[in-house]
Design a protein that fits this description.
The protein has 208 residues and is mainly β. The chain has no helices and 18 strands. The relative contact order is 0.12.
Length: 208
């Protein structure tokens, strides 16, 4: 727990020499001590938490750094709140963040080492196009970013230079059905949450 952990919504991790770094998206915009969310709603953050792992001992948080700021969050009837959601660390050291409200994928360069916060929108990977309320993110075996659309049940593949190269329908008319996703250990399948009331499942799609 920490004052900079404020409505954690999604997380990804990377191994380090001493343990692991966790990258967490926060969807609340209410600073410590405030009783109401500011009207602007653009105070949500992305944080890096350093954790030391030692055999025979509980994991220990050794540091926390705010590496992204100015992300927009707002109340939503279906999801309670929308804001910066999926986070995925690319092979290039860039942390990609799904900005659900602004319908874009933001970049935080040098995410593993940076000590200052990058403002949302300072570096944008992709916006609009096939993106339709991106939520979960994962990295494809070729290094492309895969975004899960909240509003239509599609997955969108985006290259590191920002080109939307492919779209695949995972849940037809799947508004509100997609969220988290990951690549299988063998790199051949996309595992994703299908939250449709009729499915309530963890589904599989082949990766080509």
């Amino acid at each position: 727990t920490n004052q900079n952990i404020n409505g954690p919504w999604d997380m990804t991790s990377v191994a380090t020499g001493s343990g692991v770094d966790l990258f967490v998206s926060n969807v609340l915009s209410r600073a410590k001590g405030m009783s109401a969310t500011p009207s602007s709603g653009d105070l949500s953050t992305i944080i890096r938490i350093s954790v030391t792992l030692s055999q025979g001992h509980a994991p220990r948080m050794t540091g926390l750094t705010v590496i992204g700021t100015g992300f927009l969050s707002k109340a939503n009837k279906a999801a309670f709140v929308q804001g910066p959601t999926g986070v995925a660390l690319g092979k290039n050291g860039v942390l990609y963040v799904a900005g659900t409200v602004r319908n874009h994928i933001s970049e935080i360069p040098g995410a593993m080492t940076r000590m200052t916060a990058v403002a949302d929108g300072a570096v944008t990977l992709s916006t609009g196009g096939w993106l339709n309320g991106p939520l979960g993110l994962t990295i494809a075996p070729n290094g492309d970013v895969i975004a899960m659309d909240a509003n239509d049940g599609n997955a969108v593949e985006i290259s590191p230079n920002g080109h939307q190269v492919a779209k695949k329908t995972l849940v037809p008319n799947g508004s509100g059905d997609l969220f988290a996703a990951t690549i299988s250990p063998d790199g051949k399948e996309l595992l994703f949450v299908n939250d449709a009331a009729s499915a309530n499942a963890l589904d599989i799609a082949r990766v080509h």
